[in-house]
Amino acid sequence: MLSDIEIAQSTKLKPITEIAQGLGIQEEELELYGRYKAKLNDSVFQRLKDKPNGKLVLVTAINPTPAGEGKTTTTAGLGQAMAKIGKNAIIALREPSLGPVFGIKGGAAGGGYAQVLPMEDINLHFTGDMHAITSANNLCCAMLDNHIQQGNPLGIDQRRILIKRCLDMNDRALRNVVIGLGGKINGVPREDGFIITVASEVMAILCLAKDIQDLKLRLGNILIAYTFEGKPVYAKDIKADGAMTALLKDAINPNLVQTVEGTPAIMHGGPFANIAHGCNSIRATRLALKLADYCITEAGFGSDLGAEKFLDIKCRMAGLSPSCVVVVATVRALKYNGGVAKADLAQENTEALEKGTANLKAHVENMRKYGVPVVVAINRFHTDTEAELQVIDRCCKELKVDYALSEVFGKGGEGGKELAQTVCDVIEREANHCHFAPIYPDDATVEEKIQTIAEKIYGASQVAFSNQALKSLKEIKALGGDAMPVCIAKTQYSLSDDPTLLGRPTGFTVTIRDLRLSNGAGFIVAYAGDIMTMPGLPKVPSAEKIDVDENTVIHGLF
What we know:
The protein is an alpha/beta fold. The protein is built from 19 helices and 25 strands. The strands form 6 sheets. Strands 1, 2, 3, 4, 5, 6, 14, 15, 16, 17, 18 and 19 form a 12-stranded mixed beta sheet that branches. The chain has a 4-stranded mixed beta sheet with strand order 20-22-23-21. Strands 7-12-13 form a 3-stranded antiparallel beta sheet, with no helix packed on it.
């Protein structure tokens, strides 16, 4: 059996100009990055702005195993399958971060015969968006430290600097550092730290900005520090917003690529869902809705993270309304939630599977709370037995939810035709019953918003705020940030904030240890549990298996 990278390298790609032509994109609207990648410039937005939107389909999932369960693969395969049944569809995905690529999870361009290509480029440097975001963030940090070094006219308190440097790599050694050592000319010594690029506010802003002017405004509004007098300092106060925007002037444009079967894909932005808002850019989604009858997009990790943020943050800010939510589940992930160790997931265990279906039920019921129809996609593995699939069948019938087996990993679009048809049928059948609304109103307090998510989505009995969280909340309210939606950072492995509580836990308390105002992005980040914004590498990182031969062919990327 071929590996993901062998399948990708054996696929004959179409020129990206041909993919663009099939979407009706004009030559002057395309900025080429070689033969198989391109950016879509602002002129295509202007030309299509009055065109009616297509149907928006969100692909999400249950709580995964540490290896991931194929949500991106399902999204890519669903796009391919739509073409097989004669539908005009385009997928809209996030760009991969180098952290997971070289860490434990691997790349994020799909897998098997449901991939987005060129896979090596996408999973490595792609069109440079990640590097541009990293540079813009770190330019702001450098200008802030230079401001302090050059006399500090704003009176910035170096003990109350909020912005951190970033790096698109898992590097736990950089979580906490001291900078400015080595004498007066090398800067003012202070404590600092790094976060991974995909957790930065600059990444969130790129994904939420509607155009270049909105991008500049949001960048200028980043809260970076406080003065000795307790007054807020924003990026625009140190005149960093213009240069940051210049670094991002190309990165703001979505990227056009293709799947293994030559169907179109837009990839843009890459915030994690466990530590950020987990959705691709608003610009990419809006453009996809203009270019096709169906836009199929995904949100990171389980529906308690990415989908909740997609529906409560992204849709709220962009005025989007999904027509259907697809919840991806696997037999092995449900067995994991039923208490089976990762090493034993390939063995049949209907008892653990029955127990684990409680997790699937929670995610389906939660998505229905948004007034949107739900379809379950069972991403089938070769180790799944008929007895186990019967357990899934009974569970879905009990939930009265439409479901389909998906075999896109091994069969490409052909293996997703049942899922594609099910999605289309549900959208048509439920068209008059789809009444999307976020889970909490705009005018709810920060505490009420967090409480609502914790109780209605996670299933918590209560929320506890640490003294630090209460202090931060007071400061946020003083700055008028309490009107913003909330983005809860928590573990992806459990509906709770404790990764060891699998299945569908009850009676637990969600503890908010701190809050941070992402003023430019327009939301409040609430940190639950011990979630880290700079992940570390595992004992045996994927990077150890990656190599390049004498013909510059990459091996071991997946």
